[in-house]
Design a protein that fits this description.
The complex is a heterodimer of chains A (121) and B (164). Chain A is of the alpha+beta class. Chain A has a single domain, classed as Glutaredoxin (3-Layer(aba) Sandwich), CATH 3.40.30.10. In chain A, 41% of the residues lie in helices and 21% in strands. Chain A has a five-stranded mixed β-sheet with strand order 2-1-3-4-5, covered by helices on one side. The longest helix of chain A has 17 residues. Chain A starts with a helix and ends with a strand. The relative contact order of chain A is 0.17. With 164 residues, chain B is an alpha+beta fold. Chain B has two domains: 91 residues, Histidine kinase-like ATPase, C-terminal domain (Heat Shock Protein 90), CATH 3.30.565.10; 73 residues, no CATH class. In chain B, helix 3 packs antiparallel against helix 5. The radius of gyration of chain B is 17 Å and the shape is globular. The chains are: A alpha+beta (121), B alpha+beta (164). At the A-B interface, helix 1, helix 3 and strand 2 of A face helix 3, helix 4 and helix 5 of B.
Chain lengths: 121, 164
């Protein structure tokens, strides 16, 4: 059975990594979690993103946003690497997530066939 | 702070969901039209479906939707469904719903989740978690996995081992 004490152990285990991670900009993954997104399966997408980030022990900020008006392309996610343009991926399946994380977030190569928009900031 | 209470009582044939916050509240003149799908506080466009769908889902299952709010104090939504109604939507993957929410908002917002099944219950309180975590973010992937497993285990326990 899970207990709160495990959280304390987790904190002690990650203590050194936290200090290291607090510096510098981080990669951000934003999942569209409006009603349209959820209806299209965004909850499983967000779950898959979180599982992948945990499994690979990555330093990534995962957040959610509401409907951005591209409901017909949900579920969608944005990937923003520090200093790079923000890429929106759409019409996603859960199986696309590990591909995007491996190819784009880790190796820095945008997964072209899933891109629906690009934004330079 | 947001508080979520889910009360499952198949014996009394009730599924009740209560969501309370201590946010800025909703002005009285907005409250009466809040479940209208063409009313929203957002400025990018004119539709808002969350509460409209929630109300419709409850009414489809012979239940009701009620919202109370006081400006400066916060809001409370109470929704009740007939548990065994054929049109009652399934609760779905609540462990993922809650852990996803904390993954995206946990640092800025406190979240307390109570889940009852008949007379059994469990609680997840982000304030207690933060005490243990100290400077480790509650949004850390390892913590989020812990939250998901904590909820899955406890749900199975209070529901007597039945997975649904």
């Amino acid at each position: 059975m899970k207990s709160l004490e495990e959280l304390k152990d987790m904190r002690n285990k990650f203590q050194n990594e936290i200090k290291k991670r607090d510096q510098g900009p981080r990669t951000e993954i934003i999942v569209g979690m409006g009603t349209c997104g959820i209806a299209a399966g965004a909850r499983d997408i967000l779950k898959a993103v979180l599982q992948e980030v945990d499994k690979r022990n990555m330093d990534v900020r995962v957040t959610q946003t509401g409907c951005i008006g591209m409901c017909e392309k949900e579920p969608l996610i944005d990937v923003k690497l520090p200093g790079k343009e923000r890429i929106t991926y759409g019409n996603l399946e859960v199986s696309d997530i590990s591909k995007i994380i491996l190819e784009h977030v880790i190796n820095g190569n945008v997964v072209q066939d899933l891109v629906i928009a690009r934004h330079s900031e | 702070m947001i508080e979520l209470e889910i009360i499952e009582n198949p014996k009394k044939n009730i599924l009740k969901i209560i969501i309370t916050d201590n946010g800025k509240g909703i002005p009285e003149n907005k409250l009466s039209t809040i479940t209208d799908p063409f009313v929203t506080s957002r400025t990018t466009r004119d539709v808002g479906l969350g509460l409209s769908f929630f109300k419709k889902a409850a009414e489809n299952a012979n239940g009701f939707f009620k919202i109370d709010s006081k400006e400066g104090k916060g809001s409370k939504v109470i929704v009740e469904f007939e548990y065994d109604h054929i049109d009652r939507a399934p609760l779905g993957d609540i462990a993922a719903t809650v852990s996803n929410f904390i993954a995206a908002n946990g640092d800025q917002l406190d979240f307390v989740y109570h889940h009852f099944y008949q007379d059994e219950k469990f609680i997840l309180d982000s304030r207690q978690m933060k005490e243990e975590l100290e400077d480790l973010s509650i949004q850390s992937p390892a913590v989020i996995s812990w939250v998901r497993e904590f909820i899955e285990e406890n749900l199975e326990k209070i529901r007597g081992g039945e997975a649904f």
